[in-house]
Amino acid sequence: MGLSCCIIAHNEGDRIERCIRAIERIVDEIVVVDSGSTDDTIAKSQALGAKTFFNKWDGYGPQKRFAEDCASHDWILNLDADEVVTPELAQEIAALMQAPQGLLPAYRFKQVTVYPGKDRPRLWADYHNYVRLYDRRRVRFRESRVHDTVDTKDFPVGQLRGVAHHYSWRTIDHVRQKLESYTNLQAKELKKSRWSILARLPIEYPVLFFRYYVLRRNITGGFTGIKITHEIARARTRRLLKIARAQTAAKT
């Protein structure tokens, strides 16, 4: 069973090496699709044996589908440059690839959040649980520019026990920048009625703060947890205004 690891990147020279080294022994090729980095992302990727391609950024789904098309093998391990597969997850994936007869079309594993400046996740850290290991002949990433998720159709999906560590943010300023960029993309795709936006605006921030601080357990993150929760709630509240402006502009 051949396995390709597909990574999309943009100015990830400080992080992509750790991502690649965590999986280089369990995959047959590494494909890095860059959208115009101005740092040493490409040089570091090539030094570690990755095949590098350029594709102009048009959103998450299109970029990841382009990476799928660049791969030589049908089985794909999809990672972001800020994700690091743990040794336990790497062993689990390697074992699966050695027994192709019983494979499901797709497998999920958890991407556990690591705070800026930390090496390990905090106590009870939040996580996403996405399909990231799959057979592209049967399932693929959606076309959506915003939602980078695999469309598994009606196929059964397996759950892996191992996790990847997600070093999404370098600093609190980086949290703000990423959220600003992401909500700009969302404003172009999401549609909401004007009355829905007006009704949600007064309660959006407190509801989101509670969700991310308590339910997503940033409460265990000390003062950093408060700051990150504030940035998320603030950005997602501003998203409503961006959606309203985008819809108004589309009508004029």
Give descriptors for this structure.
Spore Coat Polysaccharide Biosynthesis Protein SpsA, Chain A, alpha/beta, 42% helix, 23% strand, 10 strands, 252 residues, two-stranded antiparallel ribbon, 2 domains
Helix/strand structural class: alpha/beta
Topology pattern, helix = H, strand = E = EHEHEHEEHEEEEEHHH
* CATH topology descriptor of the largest domain: Spore Coat Polysaccharide Biosynthesis Protein SpsA, Chain A
- Under CATH, the homologous superfamily of the largest domain reads Spore Coat Polysaccharide Biosynthesis Protein SpsA, Chain A
| Widest sheet: strand ordering | 3-2-1-4-7-6-10-5
How many structural domains in the coordinates? Answer: 2
Tally of contiguous helical segments: 7
CATH architecture of the largest domain: Alpha-Beta Complex
Distance between termini? 54 Å
* Beta-strand content: 15-25%
Describe the sheet with the most strands: 8 strands, mixed
Q: Kindly report the oligomeric state of this protein.
A: single chain
Unreliable spans: none
The CATH top-level class label of the largest domain:
Alpha Beta
> Average pLDDT value?
95
Query: Compute the gyration radius: what is it?
Result: 19 Å
Strand element count: 10
Shape: globular
Helix content: 40-55%
